[in-house]
Amino acid sequence: MSKEKKSFLQVMSSYPKSFWVASIMELFERWAWYGLFAVLALYLTGSTDEGALGLTHTEKGQIMGFVTAILYLLPLFTGVVADKIGYKLSLIIAYIMLITGYYFMGEVTSYSSVFLVFLYVAVGAAIFKPVASAIITKSTDESNSTLGFGIFYMMVNIGGFIGPAFSSTLRTQYGWKIVFIQAAIVIFINLLIVIFFFKEPNRVKNEESIGEALRGSIKNIWEALKDTKLTVLLIIMVGFWTMFNQLFYTLPTFIEDWIDTAALHDSIAEISPWLASFMSGGGTSVNPEMLINIDAGSIVLLQLLVSYYVLKMRHVSAMITGFIIAAIGIGITFYTGNGLFTILGIVIFAIGEMMTNPTFSSFIALISPKGKEALYMGTYFLPVFAGNFFTTFISGNLYQAWSDKLSLLQTEMSKRAIDMPEITKDFTKNDYFSLASEKLNMTQNQVTQMIWDIYQPNKIWYVIVGIGIVTILALFIYDRLVVRPKEKQIVNS
C-alpha cells in the first residue's frame, strides 16, 4: 500500500514542540554569531580612534581562520559528549560560555587575549552545533524530514541576515562594544528558552564512558577516511570552503579599503532613500557587512526556487554548476572597485552557494556504502575545518602583502622618501591616511585611486578564483572517474 500523501498544513502540524524550540534557538544562535562574525574583520583591523583594535590583516587572519577551523573540528567530539551528558545540559553549558565569551570579546584588546576569548566562544558554539542538528533529526521522520531540514536551514539564514543588519545600525549609532553586548543578550534569550521550554528528548543510553565514546568517534572517522573515494571528495570540497570563506574574511576589509561606499549610498538613495539608510546603519556610507548580508538575504528569498531547479539536475552536475557560478560571483566582487558590481557579484555568488552547499550532503550519501551513510556523513565538517585553516593565509598573509591599503600606502610613501610617523595608539591608521593625503596634496579618494592604479590590490582575485577553477576541474574529473561509474552500477543492479 502507498503511503497517504500529507498536505502542507498536515506536515507543518506534525512537528513536535522540540522541533520548533530547536529551530528558534538556531535562529537566535546564528543571529548572535553572524551579528559578530560579519563585522569581526572590520573590528579587528579598523582604526583604534573608532573603537576598533587596529590589528594587522595577518593577525586578523589567524584569529578568524584558526579559531573557526577549530570550531568546525570540535563537533566531531562535542556531539559525543552531548549524547552522554544530555542535550539540555549541553545547551546550558554552551549558552553560558557564549554569553560570557561574547561579552568579554568586547572588553579585551590585545591580539593574544582576543584570540583566547574567541577560542572560548568557538568551543561554546561547537557544543551547540551538533545538539541543534540532533534535535531536528530526532524530531522528524521520513514523512516530514525534507521540509523539516528546509525550515531549519531557513532559520539559519534568517538569523544570519538579521544579525549583521542589527550590528550595522548598532555600531554606526553606538560604537563597537554594543555589537558584543547584542550577541550576549541574544544568547541569553536562548538560555531562557532552553531552561523553560526545552524538554530532553529520549536518548539511547549505553554504558560507554565519555573517553571510550570519543575514541570510538575517532575510530569511526578514520574508518570512513580509509575509503579513497570519500577522502578525495573531502579534499576537493576544501577548495569550495576556502573560496566561500573569502566572503566573510576578506571581502569586508576589501570593501572598506577600496570601495567608495559613500558614492554607492548616494546611488542607492536615488532609488530608495530608506534602503540607503538601512544599508548604511543611518550613516552616509554603506557598511561593508550590509553588502555581505546580501548573500544571506538572497538565500532567504531564492533558496526554494533554486532548490526546485536543482531537483531536475544530477547532484554532481548541480555542484559543478554551483562552483562555476560562485567562482564568477566572487571574482566580480574583487575585480572592480565599483560598489554596484560588488552587489552583483555577491548575488551571483549566493546563487552558486545555494546550488552547491545543500547538495554536498546528498553527494556524500551517494558514494556511501549501504549501512554506512551516518558514518560517512560524520566527515562533513572536515573540509569546512580545512577550508577555514587555509583561509587564514589568504585573508591574512596574502591580503596583508597584496591588498592592504595601509601597507601599500606605507610602501609608496617610503618610495617617495616622504617621512611618516609609525602607527601607535596616539597616531592611528586614520591619522596616517589623513597626513599622507595632506603631504601628497590629494584627497583621500584620490590617494586610494592612486594606490589602486599603482599596486592593483584586486589581483588577489587571481588566487581566489584560481582555487575555484582548480576545484571545478577536480570535481569534473571526480565525476567522470568515480560518480558516473557508481551511478551506472546502481542502475544495472
Furnish the topology, listing elements before pairings:
Layout: H1 8-13, H2 17-45, H3 57-73, H4 75-85, H5 87-105, H6 111-138, H7 145-174, H8 177-196, H9 210-225, H10 228-249, H11 251-258, H12 261-271, H13 273-279, H14 288-292, H15 294-310, H16 315-335, H17 339-367, H18 373-377, H19 381-402, H20 405-415, H21 429-440, H22 444-455, H23 460-492
Helix pairs in contact: 2-3, 2-6, 2-7, 2-8, 3-6, 3-19, 4-6, 4-9, 5-6, 5-8, 7-8, 7-15, 10-16, 10-17, 10-19, 10-23, 12-13, 15-17, 16-17, 16-23, 20-22
Give a short overview.
The protein has 493 residues and is an all-alpha fold. The protein is built from 23 helices and no strands. The protein is 79% helix and 0% strand.
Give descriptors for this structure.
3 domains; mainly alpha; Growth Hormone, Chain: A; 493 residues
What does this protein structure show overall?
The structure is a single chain. The chain is globular, with a radius of gyration of 23 Å. It has three domains: 14-205, Growth Hormone, Chain: A; 227-403 and 456-493, Up-down Bundle (Growth Hormone, Chain: A); 406-455, no CATH class. It starts with 7 loop residues before the first helix and ends with a helix. Helix content is 79%, strand content 0%. Helix 15 crosses helix 17 (339-367). The protein is mostly helical. The model has no long low-confidence stretch (mean pLDDT 89).
